Amino acid sequence: DLYRKVFVFRKDPSDAFVVLQAQLEQPLRNFTVCLRSYTDLSRPHSLFSYATKAQDNEILLFKPKPEEYRFYVGGKFVTFRVPEGRRDWEHVCASWESSTGIAEFWLNGKPWPRKGLQRGYTVGATAAILLGQEQDSFGGGFDLYYSFSGELTDVYLWDTGLSPEKMRAAFLSLRLPPALLAWNSLSYEVKGDVVVKPRLRE
């Protein structure tokens, strides 16, 4: 149970990563991914990477620079411009709906204008899901320049689009619906220099 704990990626740049195990019965036509990160990186870095054998950027949350997030589905991406962080924890949620191709992005409990992405696409179910690296091949092909350094916590993946109330609940760490990946019952494997530590503050 990772309640009130964080993954600390200690090195910069780093070859370390965390593998997440999710039981996906079928391909995803809707999903929401949420996580909280704390870093002083100004270079590009990957937060959440979900690759299939057919598509290395099947789902990717990527931060190319401090004032920008990129959200990939099936190799295509939309960009969300954000205020440059005040070197504090940032909570992000990104959701996607195949039928409309609507991509939602929430930062610290607030929604950004919705964008269109990959309408009619289906996300493959047999996936390598990693924190801390950006996959260029299934489960590998890392560019250390895109590695994450800092702290990650509260990682979730749902096979639905969360309602606005639930998006805000995720930001506030309140009760959440059952998830494919849930922080408090996470099945994971650490590869390299990543340490699990208590959170320094709420």
UniProtKB/TrEMBL annotation:
The UniProt family comment states: Belongs to the pentraxin family.
User: Which parts of the sequence belong to the Pentraxin (PTX) domain?
Assistant: 3-202
The UniProt record lists the keyword Secreted: yes
One GO MF term on file is: metal ion binding
Q: Which GO terms describe its biological process?
A: acute-phase response; innate immune response
Keywords of this entry: Acute phase, Calcium, Disulfide bond, Metal-binding, Secreted, Signal
Q: Entry's InterPro entries? A: ConA-like_dom_sf, Pentaxin_CS, Pentraxin_domain, PTX_dom
The protein's assembly and partners = Homopentamer. Pentaxin (or pentraxin) have a discoid arrangement of 5 non-covalently bound subunits.
Q: Which gene encodes it?
A: Ptx2
Q: What is this protein called?
A: Pentraxin family member
- Disulfide-bonded cysteines: C34-C93
Tell me where it resides: Secreted
> Gene Ontology cellular component?
extracellular space
> Which cofactors are named for this entry?
Ca(2+)
A Pfam family hit = Pentaxin
CC cofactor note: Binds 2 calcium ions per subunit.
Entry's Gene3D superfamilies? 2.60.120.200
